[in-house]
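fold-stage: in
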Amino acid sequence: MNLISDTTFRHITLAQAAADKASSRPDDTALLFDSGVRLTYLEAWQQANTMAAYMQRLGVKAGGTLTFQLPNIPETVPLAIAASLCGLIINPVVPIYRGKELGFILSDAKTEILFIPHQIRGFDYVEMINQLRPSLPCLKHVICCGAEGQLPDDIIRFETLMSETGASATQVVAVDPDDTKVVLYTSGTTGNPKAVRHSHNTLAKALDNGVTAWNLNDQDMMLMPSPVTHVTGYVNGIELPFFTDTRVLLMEAWIVEKAVNLIEQHGATTCVSATPFLRELVDTCRNQDRTLPGFRLFACGGASVPPALIYEAREVLTDCRAVRVYGSTEVPLVTVGFAAENETTQAAETDGRVFNYEVKICDEEGNDLGLNVDGEIWVRGPATMQGYRDADQNDAAFSDDGFFKTGDIGHLLDSEAIVITDRKKDIIIRGGENLSAREIEEVVVQHPLVAEAAAVSAPHQRLGEGVAMFITVCGRERPDLEALNQLCGERQLAKQKWPQWVQVIEEMPKTPSGKIQKAALRDRLQQAGVLLG
């Protein structure tokens, strides 16, 4: 099904867009933050120039990689513009990652300059990077945002960077908009994260798809609780107000009561985020008899979306059209939902209307199965990533004619909608965050009592899915959940990936070729009524 309507690109960079806004609307608000900070277009541009000038004096050259592992704080916005000014490849990394994941990413990306927080919820990022730094020869500079107390001599305070004076980097570095602009790492079935490359043009096209489909304009404000280190948060959080006239309200952390108050106080009209956020928003508003008039759209994806939740949202929230959307880091926003007044059923019962992509449903041999038949979803369009950094991964991920093989199973309807029915990829989606089952298994199987390990998704009452672990053991002793999680901590695996449930079984169900049958294990969970929380 070919539903590509617009293949034109903007052919401008974020730095160029920010410069234009700073000139044409200097005193207008670009972004608000739940901390109370208000950032105008001129302030964002001036701060970005100060940062760019400092980085240039450090010797960071165009084409190098800048990584930031920060929450949704004001520093991220001028940082992204500064990277564009300097012609750097920007690499956002989610703050939940610990030494195992971060060390791999920094090494693989050949990061030269890194921005980190000092502490979040008691975790010390400075200590983590000090442990990793000897194994990262490319990492030349580390800047700490929100530093508390003394820092090691080789880590720069963000305030020092912003207080520097000197020649301003007012000239935008010549950049080809088709060059790689951002590298985002996404969990894959092979364990280590995959490096997804987007150009200036492909990422802007992903943004434009939503702007066009949802009619975003200068009357809108986007509430953005999704991390700016995800493709959704980066595009709709940091870049949206510079490429369009829509303002953004960034939340550093999702707290539902705060979100309700922010929507009412600032007149936020839209949100693109994960299922648990919509669930909590609807429940809270119902319990408090609040209807959020003027809040018109919640695009929900990243995890399974129960149809009942879409119906409930439309009953509780006066003007809101809650819709299911589908996409990934590789192919952002393949579907845009059904947001019209008379499309409630399609919004609830499908995973959205395909917009500006070609989609076909294929069997194992790559044959197009047509409508109403389940198969693997293949997509192609102007917002498709440039490819993975690893050429071998590209060979497996793309067809000869350029379709991306999503690994998701579903079917197409004649209404131009996709319905997802299963996942071919061995991924656990926890609160919109993709977790690699294999990566977790590779840690758990290192326990001396564990012979085999299989991580599968289990229903989670708030986050959609969590990590359930089946293991076989070497002898009579059996490790408990605490022992497995202690090992995960020692191996510096992000806590969100630690198993929440474990069961020892005598033998893993396997195919004739010896592959563990995850579907059979998930059936066991369902029969046992396992619900995490």
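fold-stage: in (second)
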Amino acid sequence: MSEDEKTGEQPPAELRDSDSGLSAFEMNGKKSADQSNYKEIRGRKGVQNSLIESRAILAAALSSMTDAASITDARGLFIEVNDAFASYHRFEDKGQCPHSLAEYAELFEVSMADKSPAPLNMWAVPRALRGESATNFEYCLRRRDTGESWVGRYSFGPILDSEAMIVGSVVVARDITKEKQAEEAFRKSRRETSLLYRISNAFLTVADEKIFEEVLQAILDAFQTKYGVFGYIGDNGDLIVPTLGRQVWSECRVEGKSVVFPARVWGESVWGKAITRKKSFVSKGPFHTPEGHIPIHSFLTAPLVFNEKTIGLVSLANKEGGFTSEDEQILVRIAASISPILHTRMQRDGKEQERRRAELSLKNRSDQLQLILDTVPATIWFKDGNNRFLRVNRATCEMMGMPATMIEGKPADEVFPHHLAEKYFQDDLEVMNSGRARMGIEEEYVNGRGEVRWVRTDKVPWYDEQGVLAGVLAFAVDITEAKRGEEEREKLREQLSQAQKLESVGRLAGGVAHDFNNMLGVILGYSELALRALDPLQPVCNQLREIRAAAQRSANLVRQLLAFARKQTISPLVLDLNETVESMLKMVRRIIGENIELTWLPGEDLGPVRIDPSQIDQILANLCVNARDAISGFGHISIETGNCLINQDFCLKHPEASPGEYVALSIRDDGCGMGQEILSKLFEPFFTTKEVGKGTGLGLSTVHGIVAQNGGFVTVDSKSGEGTTFKIHLPRTDFANF
């Protein structure tokens, strides 16, 4: 028997607390159960001592973390948790937290990311105690007492002693519920926005006779069904459905089927109630349909209401699994967006019909005028106030390369490209609004053969028989050949001037580079001779080596000047990015000044990259100068390298990136940062936020071009007042001979 057993005394409280693996927040006055438990505890003393000795350090570290963190022993008993752990689990303080997995299971229900129940052996602590580790693993939690639930992102792993035995676990969690909710809201918004965009695009670009078919097909695709209708209420109050879906019409076997549904037959049908009550409906039946009708097992409908009047209807049917409340909400919003567009189109169509009747009457009275116009060699045409061609003569048809039937009665948008038609219409509006002629307008157009031509046009307002302004009368002469001759002469003058400038710059760069190269040769030669003549341990040798290194870097710059003078391309090499950056650090420190602290954080086992070393110099110089200018007074800049693996998910958010292995060069500052408006224009040539004379706007566009030229990409993380991080990603090369 032990001395403790003989005397019947209990071991000291400090020993019992420590050996049990329980922290002060767990004990709450609890004592060891009996002497046998004590003997078992003493048997584990050697294992637990390492945890006891580091508890103060762990407690301090955990308390500084914003993420929920916990440490358990090998039995799954919680040794330490931080305040964030209590907050994460919706407790007021650590004293309310569970002390073991059994207590945890009584308080919480844990599910996997897909909402399926997670058995105890799949929880973070048991997995860690089995030797597993993971990062960014998601669990769904629910408090059994309050019903409150949330989503957490977990990282966990085992704690090993000096003999690689598992003695505990560490688990870190972060509440990502809001992040998940934002993702879901974004998904819904994107679905609806995408549908609205497609519908709007159809209204703007699709021919009138196919509008209803295209809009309905967009809605059917979005709701994943092939059955639906999209129609409007006619002047007599009947529902007119120009389209029933591309497959529905052929499948329907109702005798005497029609696209017109008179109001007298609506009855108490779901879509009939939607029209009369101006309300959406979702139904799973039962449905009473005519003989030969397609069977209906689910239905969703929403009226199109404008100014409190139902003007149309959208109905969907037979979605797999039925329609949800979310489907109904989206369709209601889509219907509200379509209603004013449909109303405008119906109004326009009515006016269009009236206008066409007027045009036909005018044409019948103007046959003789047409004969006169066709005899005139100049191009002549009439346009109304809606930018629509009313009449053209034969010379106009010949100039445009198309018959009159392809021009008359059509808006300018259907004859010319939109941007040209809009420009012509602005000239027409100026003439019509002022009532004065515009003479000698030089403008380009594209004829029916796709040829770009130039004309000199005179435009005058013309009036109808009642003296009311009716449109514009235009006379035009083709000046394409004269214009092209003038443009060719101007282009030749510009080319000659540019060639002379480049020749002068190239000659100057080449001459200066050759002379400078000769002087660098002297510097390099004498510095090498001096180094050979001196004892390597002499202090002056370090200075001579710096001179030689600076001369070698200058020689590299000279090489670039010579390459420019000879119009040669860059010379990429396989290199170690750490070595190249380290050779630049002294220069960088001189650039940023004494008020800014520079930190160099080279990555380990860095992969090789293939790039011209001088381009790395240029990237560092540009980014460090920008970082310096962003810092007011004292600040900090860090340069860091490291390997990184880019996956497909990352590429979805960064279109310039491609999946693969990269070596990253990061330049981070704690300066003023940038807002979203500046970030959107960051790499545009000549864009700068600096004062006039202090920036060309080419620095970042040059960096972007260099990185893209070498197969990489750039990411920027910045917020106003929070500093900026530029991250250069260069492809890791397969070569190892550097």
